[in-house]
Specification:
Elements lengths: L9 E6 L3 H14 L3 E6 L2 H10 L4 E5 L7 H11 L4 E7 L3 H9 L4 E5 L3 H33 L8 H14 L5 E4 L6 H11 L7 E5 L5 H9 L16 H4 L4 E5 L6 H13 L1 E2 L8 E2 L3 E6 L3 H6 L5 H7 L2 E4 L10 H16 L5 E2 L1 H8 L6 H15 L4 E2 L1 H9 L13 H24 L3 H8 L3 H10 L11
Parallel strand pairs: 1-2, 1-3, 3-4, 4-5, 6-11, 6-12, 7-8, 8-11, 13-14
Antiparallel strand pairs: 9-10
């Protein structure tokens, strides 16, 4: 038998709508590669859900499946994790389709019925590739920690996945669509991509698209010549030329008007800009990053955003998670912000009490990281002492004056009980929303005995039926 390369350890996902085949294949591979774990899923939809919640180095998927095909799964999986190694499985007569999948980013393909030695050889090489990519990513993460410091704070799974995506896309020059709610840090992600790529020392230009009037946006982006319109008293280079050899971030790309969309498509396709008032085009070498908090697919449906431009921008995609999906990062983020703000103000460092941290961690944060930063700024400015309590946080939220050093606080036990009660109610609410009112699952996740959890619900008059769907 052919010797397979050393593969280290890792996790692989096997996807095929024929369960018996998928299980047999995973068992065969587990016997040959005992240091790897193999998970089986029977559809593209199940596979996408699995990839969303767990990290995998290798994906082995059938090409023809009902619902989400292997081709569509490949595209979606690589959009989530560009470093994922994908092997396609196909019937003998579909080799042309498999070759097309290779052009879309698949590592290799295997034809059914599968030859065992060929299987081990291809999978072994794919695993070796995954290990090399992971090692390279680890080295780049170390460099990123030194280079970017605490710019992307957090150790939640969502943040680890985000950092991996940033490192993966930074290595290329493809356009990137950065999606996320307002205040999540999309511009920070864009700057990180540029800082970790080969254009790190080149210009980085940010364009706030909604802030520029539609009538001026074309001129701002592509420049104009003297006399092109009223007030154009001299030639002007646009922002694309200012970003030449570097990176341009088109912030809130969903707000640009249709005419500019058409000209932006030309820039991406041809690598050239045409200033307003002239037919002469100038070549530019710019990496394009775009960000949005809007549903571009809906805008395509109502014909306010060009579908061809969407596909040009969405070559690589990054999703920036909202703060409510990584609440475990809040204590570290808040502490970092507080230290930074105190340094900016030139005041002695302040610290957050445990109760204050607990209060911050159980808020929903609709404004995300930006909202948290603004609240910390208010606390740093108005909190009189060097320790911030939960009472300070609550008052800072409402805009009420914070208690001065001479004003008496409520008794310690009373204040603590109020904060604990508030935290417990918010925690239980989020827990039951997540489990859809399933008490057993809620007890398992929280580590609280089922009986104790039921007592808490009864004391707080919380009805689990309110959280059940349907």
């Amino acid at each position: 038998m052919t010797t397979t390369p050393a593969t280290g350890s890792g996790a692989a996902l096997v996807v095929d709508d024929q369960r018996d085949f998928a299980v047999g294949l995973s068992r065969l591979l587990a016997g040959q590669f005992p240091d790897w774990t193999f998970t089986v899923r029977e559809s593209g939809a199940e596979a996408l859900q699995e990839l969303e919640h767990n990290d995998y180095s290798l994906l082995i998927t059938d090409l023809r499946m009902p619902g989400i095909s292997g081709q569509n799964l490949l595209t979606a999986a690589l959009a989530r994790n560009p470093a994922l190694t994908v092997i396609m499985l196909t019937a003998f007569g579909s080799v042309e389709t498999a070759v097309a999948a290779l052009k879309e980013g698949a590592y290799d393909f295997l034809t059914k019925p599968i030859d065992q030695e060929h299987l081990f050889r291809i999978v072994g090489k794919a695993m070796e590739r995954s290990q090399l990519l992971m090692e390279n990513m680890r080295l780049r993460e170390k460099a990123a920690d030194t280079e970017l410091g605490p710019m992307l704070i957090g150790e939640s799974q969502a943040m680890r996945r985000l950092r991996k995506s940033i490192l993966a896309v930074a290595a290329s020059d493809y356009t990137v669509l950065i999606r996320g709610e307002s205040g999540t840090g999309k511009e920070l992600v864009a700057r990180s991509i540029q800082a970790l790529g080969h254009r790190a020392n080149a210009p980085f230009v940010t364009v706030n698209c909604p802030a520029i009037p539609d009538s001026l946006l074309e001129s701002e982006l592509f420049g104009h010549v003297k006399g092109a319109f009223t007030g154009a008293d001299k030639n002007r280079k646009g922002l694309f030329m200012a970003a030449n050899r570097g990176t341009i971030l088109l912030d809130e790309i969903g707000d640009i008007p249709g005419g500019v969309q058409t000209k932006l498509l030309r820039v991406i396709q041809e690598g050239e800009v045409r200033p307003v008032g002239t037919n002469e085009a100038a070549k530019v070498n710019v990496r394009i990053l775009a960000s949005t908090n809007q549903n571009l697919e809906a805008k395509i449906s109502d014909q306010s955003f060009r579908e061809d431009l969407y596909f040009r921008l969405n070559v690589l995609a990054i999703h920036v998670p909202p703060l409510r999906e990584r609440t475990e990062d809040i204590p570290r983020i808040a502490s970092h912000f507080l230290l930074t703000v105190c340094r900016e103000l030139g005041v002695p460092p302040k610290e957050l009490s445990d109760e204050a941290v607990g209060y911050l961690a159980c808020r929903s944060w609709p404004g995300n990281v930006r909202e948290l930063l603004n609240l910390v700024r208010r606390l740093a400015v108005f909190c009189p002492g060097d320790r911030i309590e939960a009472a300070h946080v609550r008052q800072a939220e409402t805009g009420a004056p914070l208690p001065s050093a001479c004003e008496p606080f409520s008794p310690y036990k009373e204040t603590k009980q109020m904060v604990v009660e508030e935290f417990t109610r918010s925690y239980v609410h989020r827990l039951l929303e997540h489990t859809q009112g399933n008490i057993s699952e809620a007890a398992r996740i929280s580590g609280v005995e089922r009986f104790s959890l039921q007592k808490i619900l009864k004391r707080m008059n919380i009805n689990t039926g309110d959280y059940r769907k349907g």
